[in-house]
TrEMBL record, chain A:
Top-level taxon: Eukaryota
Database matches in Pfam families: Peptidase_C13
Signal peptide as annotated in the record: 1-19
Family: Belongs to the peptidase C13 family.
Protein name (database record): GPI-anchor transamidase isoform X1
Keyword Signal belongs to the record: yes
Keywords per UniProt: GPI-anchor biosynthesis, Signal
Pathway(s): Glycolipid biosynthesis; glycosylphosphatidylinositol-anchor biosynthesis
Gene name linked to the record: LOC104755061
Automatic annotation (TrEMBL), chain B:
Cleaved signal peptide residues: 1-24
Keyword field contains Signal: yes
Lineage: Eukaryota, Viridiplantae, Streptophyta, Embryophyta, Tracheophyta
Keywords on record: Membrane, Signal, Transmembrane, Transmembrane helix
Spans through the membrane: 547-568, 624-641
Key word Signal present: yes
Protein name: GPI transamidase component PIG-T isoform X2
Coiled-coil segments: none
């Protein structure tokens, strides 16, 4: 029996050895409103709501890049100067006394957006306008505006294509600008924007599938326009219940989206993201909760593996999310994930299979296969 | 008791030592705050916040500051800024009703949007680089798109028309820049008390931005110490000028509305900023000197000044100053506290009327012509009522004249023909030599630099109106250069009209006023006014047309080349033969089976068409099969032995 455990441990260590060797260092947020003109008030309200949420959950202003394509707060048409509301009850002024807008007006272009992501700026660009993330950063990228099949419009004049986004993310990965990236998009046909993504560590949420529209939630007759989109409204409804110490998982966030209320189907792309969503707290992306590691010496190199394990083991999993199934239609590989969770052998096999596929030398593959077969034969015979 | 004293002594020594360290270095940094309130003739109220922060010359290279904002001192040191002014403005200053000949209007009436000018202390060749870097740094600091001023098409280097004569001066403005909370917040963060305490706590964002006019200004200048080895000091002046409409319930239209600080801002002042050297509130009333006696020494007379038949103030002023044009009430807010907040109110009892002193000529600017091809810009200078009374007239060759400087930047797509410059004085066209004293023109270059026009006019004193017109052609932009809302039109920045022989100042006849606000009023400032921003519609293309063209061209190309290639490359006879041969061919799986059986039999396949990779794979497969058989044998042996036991 000991041999079995030994073999399993061997296989596991093999599977994990290629995992990221960095620990989570900081959180960044890039919040983009891509729509100009007064009737797109709701897009700015969406973005500012998210801005407020991530600030409330602990991301400081210097780590938030806020891009607003137009000035709604001091717009001549705004009945409430210097105020932006995302609800007709006007209880919450999103444009409080402490908003730092990094890119605004004509500066919100596809070029500047890609420059922020990839970090390729002119020398003179100040630090407050740069995404100074590192290889341990968790980045939240939130975008809202008008979009279509594999594109998102910027200011009604340019388009960001899914290829552009995927290339930028790929470049970020190569430049080690993030550890985990969450892309959240609230536009029509948002799911199509993620089609080209390939980089590992990327988690994507879109408000609607291909062919579906994202609708606004309600109209404020005092402001005169719709003030918030449905997807963002329900995202905020989820976050308003949380504080910085809550451990709600991403899974519970995803489950909170009801297609009937959204009038579109939220889409999650999780195949590039390794950890189980039920074990990842939302504050991983929407907040800034740092893990404190006590070291005896001042500059002691600490291994990442232990800290990773610590996160996983200590994180109280949301009880509801454990056995709940996500909407199967939206997540093609969700079934696979739950299965993974149930049977360690299957997971091992899948991990091994993935490993094997990467090998160029076919002979080693065959030899490894044989080794496994030997073990299998030994095990089966000893069990008999 | 003695032991207590003994234990206190070291503490006291330490404290005095710390104080000495903090303030011992010659001069300490100073901060002062002030608020000037002024009822305006058109039933509005002007609130002018004034903050001054002085960093004395020091040899620590400004790395350490007590009160002075570090961000600004770093800016000054890094880009070697000698003098700089940045203003964010929304709304247009009403020169007729709000005044045009006092220090307040000449300094705080600014063009719409963002205006930036800076004088650098670097070699001539580096000025443009410094400017570029400065715009970027400021855009990061103040959350605005000031970095658009870095391109050479958006700024200019005025020589003498701007008022400050320096060849290291750069000037630029962005008329369409939005001004909102995010610009005010970083500006407030430069103050030692931010907006938490003192006068700045009044700045409730919705009430500030609801006003008719708000202009937020930051002016910094370096003061040379004159001593060797000692750096230069910096004076940072921050002002916010707001024109608000007090809410009124009275139906009488000629009655001035009564107001208080809490009704204007929705807040009250509770205590001064403890770091400020002085914090005062001033109330300026214009045109009410006539019926007051000259002597204000007696208590009754002073009381009459602030509680009389016309109006009364809710608080007793600490001092009253008089000036040629009005009264100034001074309040100290140090005494106010949470329990007793400072809430100054002005209550009018009788209808009251007065007028503001105006600049000698009132400027306005408009466009002429129609169509998308060409047009003309006209600047109209109209004489105001107060023209005769003003000082500053000059006698040249026995004639009385008024001097006026006009400074104007033209974007490159407004292609101005300078030879079409026409000047009309009292509807009569004048030749250049008659009225034009000096002119400096720098023509624009397409997509490289903007054009600039500086003129000095010398008009006769009895002039009623003067008009300047200049024609232009509209240029074409590249499709990438159009902004997203190109159909809205393009802005021509405000022109600046200044009167070099007129200076505004207010002298309150006080013993060299300690207050920075009053001393800044005392300084003679150049009378200047900005004109409106002009909106020029340019020809805008149909932005979707390129896509249509691309789509239709691609379709045509595909059809043409597709059919052409088809005709050229297709061989019918070949295809038929190919189809026949394919009919004989067997499927892939079948062929594999065939090959496998051949291998088992040890005979080569009939058609030896397989190349080297195939051979390799078959070699591999034999190896694999051999290994599998080996393992199976081993397993069988293991099984045999284990069951045997």
């Amino acid at each position: 029996m000991k041999i079995v455990i030994l073999v399993m441990l061997l296989c596991y260590s093999f599977a994990f050895s290629s995992g990221d060797t960095t620990i989570h260092t900081n959180n960044w947020a890039v919040l983009v409103c891509t729509s100009r003109f007064w009737f797109n008030y709701r897009h700015m309200a969406n973005t500012l709501s998210l801005y407020r949420t991530v600030k409330r959950l602990g991301i400081p202003d210097e780590r938030i890049i806020l891009m607003l394509a137009d000035d709604m707060a001091c717009n001549a048409r705004n009945e409430y100067p210097a105020q932006v509301f995302n609800n007709e009850n006007h209880k919450l002024n999103l444009y409080g006394d402490n908003v730092e807008v990094d890119y605004r007006g004509y500066e919100v272009t596809v070029e500047n957006f890609l420059r922020v992501l990839t970090g390729r700026h002119e020398n003179a660009v100040p630090r407050s306008k740069r995404l100074l993330s590192d290889e341990g950063s968790h980045i939240l990228l939130y975008m809202t505006g008008h979009g279509g099949d594999e594109f998102l419009k910027f200011q009604d004049a340019e388009e960001l294509q899914s290829h552009d986004l995927a290339d930028a993310v790929k470049q970020m990965k190569e430049k080690r600008r993030f550890k985990e990236l969450m892309i959240m998009v609230d536009t029509c046909q948002a799911a199509t924007l993620f089609n080209q993504l390939q980089s590992p560590g990327v988690l994507a949420i879109g408000s609607s599938l291909k062919g579906e529209n994202s609708y606004s939630h309600h109209l404020d007759s005092d402001v005169g326009v719709s003030v918030v989109d449905r997807f963002t409204y329900y995202t905020l409804a989820f976050f308003e219940r949380l504080n910085i110490y809550d451990n709600a998982s991403l899974n519970s966030l995803f489950r909170s989206y009801d297609p009937k209320l959204l009038m579109s189907t939220a889409y999650y792309r999780t195949d590039l993201y390794q950890p189980h969503l039920a074990e990842v707290p939302v504050t991983n992306f929407f907040g800034s909760v740092m893990e404190t590691i006590h070291t005896d010496s001042v500059y002691k190199a600490f291994s990442s593996k232990t800290s990773n394990n610590k996160i996983n083991s200590e994180m109280p999993v949301n009880q509801l999310s454990e056995h709940d199934e996500l909407q199967k239609a939206n997540i093609p590989n969700d079934e696979l994930k739950t299965e993974k969770q149930k049977c360690p052998y299957t997971q091992m096999r899948v991990d091994l299979h993935e490993k094997l596929e990467k090998f160029e030398n076919v002979d080693t593959v065959v030899n490894l296969g044989i080794a496994v077969m030997v073990f299998v034969v030994m095990i089966s015979s000893s069990l008999l | 008791m003695a032991s207590l004293v003994r234990s206190w002594i070291p503490l006291l020594i330490l404290q005095s030592f710390l104080v000495a360290v903090a303030f011992g270095s010659k001069e300490a940094e100073q901060f002062s705050e002030a608020l000037l309130l002024k009822p305006l003739p058109d039933r509005k109220v002007l609130a002018h916040f004034h903050f001054e922060n002085r960093a004395p010359p020091s040899n620590s290279h400004g790395r350490h500051h007590h009160l002075f904002p570090k961000a600004i001192s770093q800016l000054v040191q890094k880009f070697r800024v000698k003098e700089m002014e940045l203003s964010f403005t929304q709304g247009r200053w009403n020169h007729e009703h709000w005044g045009g000949f006092d220090p307040l209007s000449s300094m705080n009436a600014k063009p719409v949007g963002v205006e930036l000018w800076a004088v650098f202390d670097v070699p001539q060749s580096q000025v443009d680089t410094s400017w570029k870097n400065l715009t970027h740094a400021l855009s990061g600091l103040f959350c605005a798109s000031i970095n658009f001023l870095e391109s050479s098409t958006s700024y200019a280097a005025p020589t003498w028309g701007f008022g400050t004569n320096s060849d290291k001066l750069r000037y630029g403005s962005l008329p369409r820049e939005a001004v909102c909370t995010e610009n005010l917040t970083p500006w407030l963060k430069l103050l030692p008390c931010r907006d938490k305490d003192g006068i700045s706590a009044l700045m409730n964002r919705p009430s500030v931005y609801r006003g008719f006019y708000h202009s937020q200004r930051l002016h910094l200048s370096t003061v040379e110490s004159g001593q060797e080895g000692l750096g230069s000091g910096i004076v940072l002046e921050q002002t916010l000028t707001v024109v608000l409409q007090p809410e009124t319930t009275s139906v009488e239209t000629n009655m001035q509305p009564s107001w208080s600080l809490s009704s204007l801002f929705g807040r009250k002042v509770v205590g001064s900023c403890v770091l400020a050297k002085s914090s005062n509130v001033y109330l300026q009333l214009e045109g009410r000197l006539g019926h007051e006696s000259k002597n204000v020494d007696t208590e009754i007379e002073a009381h009459k000044l602030w509680k009389n038949a016309d109006f009364d103030l809710s608080l007793k002023p600490d001092r009253v100053l008089r000036e040629s044009s009005g009264l100034l009430f001074i309040f100290d807010i140090d005494k106010s506290s949470d329990s007793e907040p400072f809430d100054l109110g002005l209550n009018w009892k009788l209808p009251s009327k007065w007028s503001c002193q105006q600049a000698p000529l009132q400027a306005s600017r408009f466009l002429m012509g129609s169509g998308n091809e060409r047009g003309a810009i006209a600047i109209l200078l109209k004489a105001t009522e107060s023209q005769e009374k003003l000082p500053g007239r000059e006698l040249t060759d026995g004639r009385c004249t008024i001097k006026a400087n006009i400074f104007q930047i033209f974007p490159w797509y407004i292609k101005v023909y300078y030879h079409t410059l026409q000047i009309f004085v009292d509807q009569q066209q004048k030749t250049d030599s008659e009225v034009l004293k000096k002119i400096n023109v720098s023509p624009s270059t397409d997509k490289v630099s903007s054009g600039m026009l500086e003129m000095m006019l010398e008009l006769p004193c009895e002039v009623k109106s003067a008009a300047i017109s200049i024609e232009y052609d509209k240029g074409f932009l590249h499709i990438d250069e159009y902004p997203p809302d190109a159909n809205q039109g393009f802005d021509i920045p405000s022109a600046l009209i200044s009167f070099p022989s007129h200076h505004a100042s207010l002298d309150f006849q006080e013993e060299l006023s300690k207050s920075p606000l009053l001393s800044s009023f005392k300084e003679k400032s150049l009378v200047r006014s900005y004109t409106e921003v002009l909106l020029v519609p340019l020809t805008t293309p149909d932005f979707s047309m390129p896509y249509n063209v691309i789509t239709i061209t691609c379709t045509i190309f595909a059809l043409y080349f597709g059919s052409l290639l088809n005709v050229l490359r297709r061989r019918i006879g070949e295809e038929e033969r190919f189809l026949k041969s394919q009919g004989k061919k067997t499927g892939g799986v079948k062929q594999l089976l065939l090959r496998l059986t051949a291998k088992i039999r040890g005979r080569p396949i009939e058609a030896p068409s397989s190349e080297s990779p195939a051979a390799e794979s078959s070699f591999l497969s034999t190896k694999l099969i051999f290994k599998i058989i080996l393992i199976a044998g081993a397993a069988a042996a293991w099984q045999y032995f284990s069951t045997d036991k």
